[in-house]
Amino acid sequence: MGICSFAAADTIKATIKGTACDPCASAIEKMFRTQPEVKTVDVDLENKLVTIQTRQGQTMDDSKIRKLLGNAGYSVVAVVRERQ
To answer: How far apart are CA 59 and CA 44, in angstroms?
Structure first.
């Protein structure tokens, strides 16, 4: 019998303003990858969307997301979460 883990991960989608170039996207991805709770991050410039996948059993507070993006010069329009 295998060990099952029921700890969920979050997919967090933050809509932002202030980014329009590949270096901006790379900077955002690099910033979030340094966070211990982040498994993957993807920046969609066309839709102004940052998608963050957390590690299993971990999450990231909206306030932390807003602070990280705000400190980098971006405005957060909305944060939406999906539990997996």
So the answer is: 21
The model's confidence at residue 7, banded by pLDDT at 50, 70 and 90, is low
Burial class (CB in 10 A: 0-12, 13-18, 19+), 32: buried
Considering the entire predicted model, what is its pTM? 0.86
Give per-residue pLDDT as tens, 52-63.
999 999 999 999
Instruction: Please state, as a whole number, how many other Cβ atoms lie within 10 Å of the Cβ of residue 55.
Output: 16
CATH topology of domain 10-83: Alpha-Beta Plaits (3.30.70)
